[in-house]
């Protein structure tokens, strides 16, 4: 190093050392004055861990909760600490551009492949990955429809078309699967993160072809996901769903004929089906959704996360209930955040809630989850069920605005107020959170909700919006405006393709805390339906 360089570097290190000393003094002063919470070191989990390591109340989640404790210091402090000066920011989505995963489904018809594809897509989209399902059946139907429209030729897609001994049909099915894979690869190249190839891919030969094709692409990970099912009741239910939900393959047949044809189609596939065992492939084999999972060669963050999610799914019938806490004293005063108690009307709601829930759930078991805030714990107090508190369920942290009314925020922080109205999902309160931050902290809650059966969550407006958006697959722009009124129980019943919903409003008045979307912005859509789609929504792009 030259002398000049050495001098420069000495001066620089002196400067850094002085800065560090100043910062350390400032930190000590802040800690001494109580402005800054002392650093908490989280102890490792005890060796006597309960079986559900990541479950509600389990050590992993407890550590997650503790590590995400947000300071809920009163916003009425005269001047905010330096870290929260400036205006609340719109925080951009994380950069996932390097993530390129192909999930190739495997399995016989009526084994729940589309169910798993759909669930995985919704979960990853909720976490902001760009995900798309490429369903070969949809492509086949769309192409056949186009052919019929253009050439007037109607293709025969009865069981005969799916027979391995029909060479021409086998060739055309292979071509469709290849074309769909090409569309998927192209889409990943254009910026997608996870492409799901929803086809049977039920022979070693077909899987080898997919593997060979993906080997030609750099930076793409291939995972096979087999949905194996030998439970006659599930298979029968899937067959019924296929023949009764308006599948275009069966639109000209009676339900009886349709059922017979579909069962024949399944037996054609069974003749050549090979379950996945290839030791060199990355795969997950899920038996009877949730009964047994085999994992082979799954590496990397996103792949492991996908595997973890799929391991937690089940299809046992159940209900998920959402309720906000009863009306709180802060609600009455129009203030946000805080940790106030219930108003007298809120207490009436807490007392009326058990009858509503028990009428609905009967003798079935139920667990109640609350946040750690007083208003949710108070609301749950009369419910005769096991209760768990989650820090992750605490209301969106409004930072310096905590404890203020919307009018006070508009006056004190006009830029923040306008920023939030412009892009509510991305706006992060000074020293607080954005809706995106909340989605991230709710991810373990979603994981656990998938694993559990009947659950009642007594939560908060923003929190329940995020969870509701996951179950109804609602877009980010609509999420912060979803109506979750006070004194109302929302009952969700998960179905194969979405959730049924019922709402029960108790006749106990409460204030309305919903601020509608500003007029200039697009109004939210109603929630998605549970109908399965049978055609590719957008025009099929010709491949180069
Ligand atoms: O007003 C009740 C409340 O739960 C507040 O504590 C919270 O800040 C707010 O709702 C979240 O709703 P929004 O995002 O619409 O301000």
Automatic annotation (TrEMBL):
Residues 68-77 have a biased composition (Polar residues). It holds the Pfam family His_Phos_1. SMART domains: PGAM (SM00855). Keywords: ATP-binding, Nucleotide-binding. The keyword ATP-binding applies. It comes from the Eukaryota. Residues 67-90 are annotated as: Disordered. Residues 94-317 form the 6-phosphofructo-2-kinase domain. The keyword Nucleotide-binding applies. This is Bifunctional 6-phosphofructo-2-kinase/fructose-2,6-bisphosphate 2-phosphatase.
């Amino acid at each position: 190093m030259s002398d000049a360089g050495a001098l420069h570097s000495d001066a620089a290190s002196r400067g850094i050392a002085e800065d560090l000393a100043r910062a350390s003094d400032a930190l000590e002063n802040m800690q001494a004055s109580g402005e800054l919470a002392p650093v908490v070191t989280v102890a490792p989990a005890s060796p006597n861990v309960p079986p559900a390591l990541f479950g509600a109340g389990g050590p992993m989640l407890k550590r997650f909760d503790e590590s995400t404790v947000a300071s809920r210091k009163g916003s009425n402090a005269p001047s905010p600490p330096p870290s929260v000066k400036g205006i609340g920011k719109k925080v951009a989505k994380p950069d996932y551009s390097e993530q390129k995963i192909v999930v190739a489904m495997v399995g016989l018809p009526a084994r729940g492949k589309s169910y798993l594809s759909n669930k995985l897509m919704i979960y990853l989209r909720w976490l902001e990955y760009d995900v798309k399902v490429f369903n070969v059946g949809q492509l086949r139907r769309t192409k056949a429809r186009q052919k019929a429209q253009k050439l007037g030729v109607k293709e025969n897609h009865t069981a005969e078309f799916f027979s391995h001994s029909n060479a021409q049909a086998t060739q055309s099915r292979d071509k469709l699967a290849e074309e769909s894979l090409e569309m998927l690869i192209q889409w990943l190249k254009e910026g997608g993160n996870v492409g799901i190839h929803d086809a049977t891919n039920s022979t070693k030969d077909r899987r080898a072809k997919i593997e060979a094709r993906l080997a030609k692409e750099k930076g793409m990970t291939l995972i096979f996901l087999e949905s194996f099912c030998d439970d006659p009741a599930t298979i029968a239910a899937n067959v019924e769903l296929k023949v009764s939900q308006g599948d275009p393959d069966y639109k000209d047949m009676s339900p009886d004929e349709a059922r017979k044809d579909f069962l024949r189609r399944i037996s054609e596939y069974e003749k050549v089906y090979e379950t996945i065992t290839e030791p060199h492939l990355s795969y997950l084999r899920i038996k009877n959704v949730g009964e047994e999972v085999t994992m082979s060669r799954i590496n990397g963050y996103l792949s492991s996360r996908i595997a973890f999610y799929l391991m937690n799914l089940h299809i046992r019938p159940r209900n998920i209930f959402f309720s906000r806490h009863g009306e709180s004293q802060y609600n009455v005063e129009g203030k946000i955040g805080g940790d106030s108690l219930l108003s007298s009307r809120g207490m009436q709601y807490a007392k009326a809630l058990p009858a509503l829930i028990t009428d609905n759930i009967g003798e079935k078991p139920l667990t109640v989850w609350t946040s750690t805030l007083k208003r949710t714990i108070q609301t749950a107090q009369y419910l005769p069920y096991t209760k768990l508190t989650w820090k992750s369920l605490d209301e969106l942290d409004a930072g310096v605005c905590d404890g203020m009314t919307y009018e006070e925020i508009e006056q004190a922080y006009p830029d923040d107020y306008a920023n939030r109205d412009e892009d509510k999902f991305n706006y992060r309160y000074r020293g607080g959170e954005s809706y995106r931050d909340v989605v991230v902290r709710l991810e373990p809650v979603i994981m656990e909700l998938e694993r559990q059966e009947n659950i009642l969550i007594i939560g908060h407006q923003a929190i329940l919006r995020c969870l509701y958006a996951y179950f109804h697959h609602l877009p980010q722009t609509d999420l912060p405006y979803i109506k979750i009124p006070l004194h109302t129980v929302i009952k969700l019943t998960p179905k194969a393709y979405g959730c049924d919903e019922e709402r029960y409003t108790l006749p106990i008045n409460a204030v309305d805390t919903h601020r509608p979307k500003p007029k200039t912005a697009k109004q939210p859509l109603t929630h998605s339906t549970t109908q399965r789609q049978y055609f590719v929504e957008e025009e099929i792009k010709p491949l180069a």
